[in-house]
Write the structure tokens for this entry.
Amino acid sequence: MSSVAAAMVGMSQAQTQNQLAATFMKQNADATAALAAMLEQNADYAAAVAKAPTPPGVGGKVDITA
């Protein structure tokens, strides 16, 4: 194999490797963003539940005479 052909094969392999690395990095970033969005949504829900008023008959006075 000539040195020019070997150089072309090497460049092709490097380009393929770079494309795969970029694809994997994008997939990792997308997964991280999805996880962050899910955690943020869960935190928003927990905050809304914590601020919700208690229904009638729950909490307040406790009858301990029994």
